[in-house]
Amino acid sequence: MPKKQTAAITLNQSESPVTTLKQTLKTARSGETYVYESNEWRIGRTLKLPWSALDMNGLTDRVSPMVLDSFRKTMSELVEEVSERYARDLFDRILSLLHYCTDEITIKSFELWRTNLSTRQISTPTRMNYLQQCRSALIAWSDGGYPGLERELGNHVHQIKTSSRNNTGQIVREQCPVRGPFSQIEEVSLLRWIHAAYADGTLSLQVYAIFLIQVEFGCRPVEIGAMRACDVIEDRTEHIYELAIPTAKGSRNYRAANRKLELPPDLYALLKQVIAEGQNKVAQAWGQTIPPQLSKKLPLFIGRSLLAAGSIEAFEHRLTKTPRTFDVHIHSHIISSIQKCPVTTDRLAGDILPISLYRFRRTVATRLAEAGASDELIASVLGHVTTDTVKVYTSHTYEDQAACDGIMVEAWEPVLDLKEKRLLGEPIVGQAKINLNRDDQVGNCAQLCGSGIFSCYACPKFHPFIDAPHNKALAQIVEERQKRISQGLSGQQVDSLDLPIAAIKATIRLCEEIKSRKKP
């Protein structure tokens, strides 16, 4: 969340139900700032959340203050993640649900609200939309760990289906389009924006690396914040790269346990660049050269508190006393970048795609489940001590993979955006060369990133050479796809290669057209 700002202003009791000497300023995804304790949150240019509605409906006298407080905290998180229109819809659904609650929101109260919904004179699509919105808000409430929900309510709402099998726009039947895993199209679009935003300078190197770590591993935010430079490992014996992820659960001692997962070479190179950039910033801020042994202790992601430490001696002293003191609060670190993301989703009628760090986590787990990974493997990747909670992350799967593939083909038409002007007859001086292997160069890129050679073909920053051996790139990726199928993999493990295959084929066709026009 954005860093809290406070002002020592006494609130008027007639204007707010919360008695406090401070006003906490927070920012919605739209960029509007609101006072958390106030009776009205302006979350968009024209939209507000009217907390006075609780009094007007008699809910402050009937519903537990604990439930109302949790409702407010949940909405504060949601207005950072979703559009103002959708946030207001979620607010209205919970407000209507609270009419059936007292000490907590129970399965019984939820079903009473749901039954009443079915008796109202509204269309079936509208009723299903209301149900989906209420469920999304309750899942966000449960994710936040806030009190006021019956223990089994989360599992209950997860199992309710709100989409029709005949709805072709719904490529994936998922439990929650706000907090659940991203669909394939959402993930592809989001990744394209992440790479493009880094290339044009919208995302900093640190934020870009955080996003890619989440896409690859789905870490808990606190685990990323606790990472050190020494956690990026090159195993020369095994010839592999690894990331040691500090385990947030299962150990009482800070950084006492970790899980090592293999790093893709491109991501390893990017993280080494993050380390170098961060250590240069620290050296400049402290006015001291950072010795090699100390450099390994520095956080992987550098925050203001570390730069403000002032010296090596102060850093080591504070690290000994309070080891967590320099950990970056990851959500605060990237929230402004999330708010810039323009990606939309058809699953919310073209609304802005809600993004939270835990959606990446659930997406990683879901893709593993789709590929046939065991609960033990998924628990190991996610850092769970047992497999008991794995189903929370793996309950969302594809209804029909063939139907999903068909929809993806149509979706890729605007995604590829491959035009003749992107092709090059000869290299551009000063731009990075993209190599397929040691001998074959296939194009130029305005800025290198950690996406990998096959992702380059679908990236607008990549300029293929007309005479490059793109057929070799196609042969390599088709062979990789077949290899995965022969290994028994399926789902995202295989389908993730379809987009680059389509992009390479489109590149080859365009190159051949240009060559044919040049022939006498």
TrEMBL record:
SUPFAM superfamilies membership: DNA breaking-rejoining enzymes (SSF56349)
A Pfam family recorded for this sequence: Phage_integrase
Limits of the Tyr recombinase domain: 179-406
Domain of life per record: Bacteria
Annotated keywords: DNA recombination
Protein name: Site-specific integrase
Organism: Vreelandella piezotolerans
